[in-house]
Design brief:
heterotrimer; A alpha/beta (280); B mainly alpha (539); C mainly alpha (204); B: 539 residues; mainly alpha; Cytochrome C Oxidase, Chain A; two-stranded antiparallel sheet; C: 204 residues; Four Helix Bundle (Hemerythrin (Met), subunit A); 5 helices
Chain lengths: 280, 539, 204
């Protein structure tokens, strides 16, 4: 006995969704996650990947099925049913994508909010040190430090980043360390204040799922909390000249004690003046 | 309407004067073919440039060419492919050839302006390429973001600006002609809602060109002032603002994506019903979705700037607007599927390329929706993920449609059919090559490879080599196509006037068509997709 | 939606073809084409205005720079252009009535007004306290007014050419009004842009 078409459609649809969900949850295309942001990003990625897989397999399946099932058998085949449209059907496939898109949009904004992107930029961490000199300095919005969950922004480690052709220089104002590599403590928010000397650069750490352009003319703020100790690449992602591909650095995420040691060893404030700059 | 006597049409059609293809012809069919052939020449140049880039990327170190040259070639590749290949071909070539037929006219509304628009392209292209030999081409990518474009070699950058201004002008003149022809030149009795879908697509595209291209032109003039006259519009060192350039640039360059894909949507809508022997499903919704895409396309540009320090409200707005483009685009894809459904589909090369387009574009569209989401974009912006995404759209989308259209309309232009087995070979080589080349690039981007680099992390070497093999396959795929086009011109099966039994007006005249398109009065086609209906054509 | 767009042009005005257009077998759509072009041209200005307003909102000027401009000359210029739009219109209606003498007189007045505008603009340029490369505001000011001035220059030249061509035996006549009508449309457009420009650059 043939299965009624409606049931069949329903079954195929369910199967598609299940396949999409399985692929989205189980196929990992991303590098390790090393910041508070990264698991949030991966969550979004899985949802988008599931929806995308379902849609892609569904539509490609429709194309392949149509091409095989409705293939012209002989060249003499004449005209077939002259269907010019079907209003309910068209309303359906306007409404469904609209709902999906709306869901995706709201969901991704929830993710973005949890990452801290929707918090208006106030230069909290800098306010303490910059004091009255530049009361209302204009900055570009990156991801705000105010939102890193559970942590009052005042505890964020401030770091000044200078991007130039073709290197990043990191300056720790509290300890007065200048470094070519970025050392950050795990589990503690970090607040970058980034400036570019010449052209536009971008600060990207794939394992943090975080990127921000550094545009000359205005400092850019970016905050994150690293989680997983290790060495990860810092990549310049905006074409900045001939050696753009070589403009890379490393971020070293350390346990807080190791980070404290590193600061103590390298800070000229207490240590010998010869070790003032560690440029690797 | 004044009608010239149907005198010696036949004789002119039998003896095509090849010389006129190299002159200032005002015949829309000649101009269309001029656009097409000229576009293909630049396609091969742009393809060779891509080949050089992919060769450099076979190894993680910069060893095949100097880094400056790499940046010059990637700038030239992008500019050539967008401004000299896709935009002129999918608009100028097919638009000029088909639109007068579709509205039942003998030529475009402004034939001489039309010729001028075409003849701006070869000098602009030669100018652009020549910059490479005149001390180095622009090194700042096709986006030419300041301050980089102000700091690199000035000659190359200024030549680049001049060339793009010329091409933009050509595009605007072309759009004026399309709007005039579609709105004003319809034969008496032909209603707007009876026009073939490509007319609507070209109307929408032309609106986008008219509204957005001038903004790019103005912006590039300001950029050239910054370079030549040392003003500081976009130079932060002089108090200027580099982000304003990005806004103005993308105000054109995002609609430019629709300028490249909307005509492709139109062409597919012409091809599928003919070969499926079914009316185009949902004509009215197709028209509305084109206009919705035009409107939304104008208000989404800042999604290219999510990492440029745009304020949160702007990110929210542009994410939502961008996501909603998926709705009208989705309608079009579902309508094409419904057109195929239950049809009697001939699986020829034109249909294969059209369906290849659907598959590729859906893939690129899905990654596009993902890219519209701010948090997603923050990770993959300016990486190979984006490179993969937009090549699926412009190559897997528009270029596939260009090929489909050539298989579909070649018999009309040449009077002979293209060879089917060679066409199938061409399709499969292109399809496999494209997916091999660009699908792995998404992974590269997710895992940390930025775009526009001559050197990269050694862990990405294997995937890059796969991608380069795909590029080689795409290069090889043009061989059967070229052989086919040349061989069939002399030896192909004689097609007859209407080999596909199509109903759109261009098929209701001889192949190749006479100089003034019709032998006598233009037919009134009020059901251009009336397959299976009673009387689609009157008079 | 089906019929709301302009219907197909009928053949009645086919007789109005100029001799130069006799190879085209359709009515004259050149004015429509020009209008389409002017939409595009207007978008160039829109881009400039958008850039100017953004610069102004986002980029503070260096110490001592000024935004305020003398209003007298540009206000006179606004009046000059508005009057010239009117005089051009009079020239057009005179030509329609086949009164060439009057038409030419109005054309000459219009061209004079255009040239006066340019002279006043130049005078303003030379009296301004900032130059092209002094600061962002100066650069934008000169770019926008310069681009508009280029339009006025082109328009004035075209008016003078039409003035010459509308002499007895010239190509512009009551039968061939296209050159005059096209220039008139263009001139009104340039005036309209000036009014917006005046509002944004001088008054705001």
């Amino acid at each position: 006995m043939p299965i009624p078409p409606r049931i069949l459609t329903l079954l195929i649809g369910t199967a598609l969704v299940l396949v999409g969900l399985w692929v989205g949850q189980n196929v990992n295309l991303l590098p390790v996650d090393a910041s508070v942001n990264a698991p949030l990003y991966d969550e979004l990625f899985k949802v988008l990947f599931s929806i995308g897989t379902t849609l892609f397999i569904g539509i490609v399946g429709m194309v392949l099925y149509s091409l095989t099932r409705f293939r012209r058998r002989s060249d003499t085949a004449g005209e077939v049913l002259a269907v010019e449209g079907n209003l309910p059907l068209e309303i359906l496939w306007t409404a469904i994508p609209a709902v999906v898109v709306l869901f995706v949009g709201i969901y991704s904004f929830d993710i973005y909010d949890r990452m801290g992107g929707m918090v208006p930029m106030h230069d909290h961490s800098m306010a303490s040190m910059q004091t009255a000199q530049e009361p209302e300095e204009k900055t570009w919005a990156g991801i705000s430090p105010a939102s890193v969950e559970g942590e009052p922004p005042a505890t964020a480690v401030p770091i000044e980043v200078t991007a130039m052709q073709f290197a990043f220089i990191f300056h720790y104002p509290e300890a007065d360390i200048i470094s070519g590599e970025l050392h950050v403590p795990a589990g503690q928010p970090v607040s970058l204040r980034m400036t570019a000397n010449d052209v536009i650069h971008a600060f990207w750490v794939p394992e943090f799922r975080l990127k921000q352009d550094i545009i000359p003319g205005q400092p850019t703020l970016l905050s994150f909390t690293a989680t997983r100790p290790g060495r990860y690449p810092i990549v310049c992602a905006e074409l900045c000249g001939a050696y753009h591909g070589g403009m890379r650095s490393t971020v070293i995420v350390e346990e807080p004690e190791d980070f404290a040691n590193w600061v103590a060893q390298n800070s000229p404030v207490k240590a010998t003046p010869t070790s003032s700059a560690v440029i690797s | 309407m004044t009608i010239s006597p149907p005198s010696d049409f036949a004789s002119t059609a039998e003896q095509p004067r090849w010389q006129r293809y190299f002159g200032f012809s005002t015949d829309h069919k000649v101009i269309g073919l001029q656009y097409l052939v000229c576009g293909f020449l630049f396609y091969f140049i742009g393809g060779a440039l891509a080949g050089a880039l992919r060769t450099e990327l076979l190894t993680p170190i910069s060893d095949f060419m100097p880094r400056e040259v790499y940046n010059e070639l990637l700038t030239l590749h992008g500019t050539v492919m967008i401004f000299l290949w896709i935009v002129p071909v999918v608009n100028g070539a097919f638009g000029n050839y088909l639109i007068p037929f579709y509205v039942g006219a003998r030529d475009m509304a402004y034939p001489r302006l039309n010729a001028v628009a075409f003849w701006m392209i070869p000098p602009a292209g030669v100018l652009l390429i020549s910059s490479y030999f005149l001390g180095g081409a622009s090194q700042s990518g096709w986006t030419a973001y300041p301050p980089l474009s102000l700091n690199t070699a000035a000659t190359g950058q200024v030549i680049w600006i001049l060339s793009v201004l010329l091409l933009g002008g050509s595009s605007i003149f072309g759009a004026i002609n399309f709007v005039g022809t579609i709105l004003k030149m319809r034969r008496p009795g032909l209603q707007m809602m009876q026009l073939p879908m490509y007319c609507w697509a070209m109307l929408g595209t032309s609106i986008l060109v008219l509204l957005s291209t001038p903004v790019l032109a103005g912006t590039l003039v300001l950029l050239s002032f910054d370079i030549v006259a040392h003003t500081g519009f976009f130079n932060p060192a002089m108090g200027g603002n580099a982000v304003v350039y990005q806004h103005l640039f993308w105000f054109y360059s995002h609609p430019a994506v629709y300028i490249m894909v909307l005509p492709a949507f139109g062409l597919v809508s012409e091809i599928l019903p003919v070969h499926a022997r079914k009316p185009l499903f949902g004509y009215t919704t197709m028209v509305y979705s084109i206009m919705a895409i035009v409107f939304l396309g104008l208000i989404v540009w800042a999604h290219h700037m999510f990492t440029s320090g745009t304020p949160p409200w702007m990110r929210l707005f542009f994410t939502i607007a961008t996501s909603f483009i998926a709705v009208p685009t989705g309608i079009k894809f579902f309508n094409w599927l419904a057109t195929l459904w239950g049809g009697s589909i001939s699986l020829n090369s034109a249909v294969m390329f059209s369906c290849g387009f659907i598959v590729n574009f859906v893939f690129g569209g899905i990654t596009g929706i993902a890219l519209a989401q701010v948090p997603f974009d923050i990770h993959v912006h300016d990486t190979y993920f984006v490179v993969g995404h937009f090549h699926y759209i412009v190559y897997g989308g528009t270029v596939f449609v260009i090929f489909a259209s050539i298989y579909h309309w070649y018999p009309k232009v040449m009077g002979r059919l293209l060879n089917e087995p060679l066409g199938q070979l061409h399709f499969w080589l292109t399809f496999i090559g494209l997916n091999l080349c660009f699908a792995p690039q998404h992974w590269l981007g997710l895992n940390g490879m930025p775009r526009r680099v001559a050197e990269y992390d050694p862990q990405f070497q294997f995937i890059n080599q796969i991608s380069s093999v795909g590029a080689l396959l795409m290069a090889v795929s043009t061989l059967p196509f070229l052989i086919n086009v040349i061989w069939s011109a002399y030896r192909g099966t004689v097609a007859g006037d209407n080999p596909w039994n199509a109903l759109t007006p261009e098929w209701l005249t001889s192949s190749p068509p006479p100089e003034e398109n019709w032998h006598g009065e233009a037919p009134l086609v009020h059901e251009p997709y009336g397959y299976g209906l009673k009387s689609p054509v009157s008079s | 939606m089906t019929t709301s767009l302009p219907g197909p042009a009928s053949g009645q005005n086919a007789t109005e073809h100029s001799a130069a257009e006799s190879t085209e077998h359709h009515p004259d759509h050149r004015l429509f084409g020009l209008a389409t072009f002017l939409v595009a041209d207007g978008m160039t200005f829109a881009g400039f205005f958008a850039a100017y307003l953004t610069f102004r909102a986002v980029n503070p000027l260096p110490e001592g720079a000024i935004y305020e401009l003398e209003l007298l000359l540009p206000s006179i210029n606004t009046v000059l252009l508005l009057v010239s739009s009117f005089t051009f219109h009079r020239a057009g209606s005179a030509l329609k009535r086949d009164d060439r003498q009057l038409c030419r007189r109005w054309l000459l007045i219009t061209a004079t007004l255009g040239l006066l505008f340019l002279a006043a603009q130049l005078k303003e340029y030379f009296s301004l306290p900032f130059g092209l490369t002094d600061n962002l505001y100066g650069s934008t000011f000169y770019a926008i007014t310069g681009f508009h001035g280029l339009h006025v220059t082109l328009g004035s030249l075209m008016i003078l050419i039409i003035w010459w061509q509308s002499r007895e035996g010239g190509r512009v006549s009551s039968q061939n009004r296209f050159p005059l009508e096209a220039t008139e449309l263009y001139w009104h457009f340039v005036d309209g842009i000036w009014v917006v420009l005046y509002g944004i650059l001088y008054l705001l």
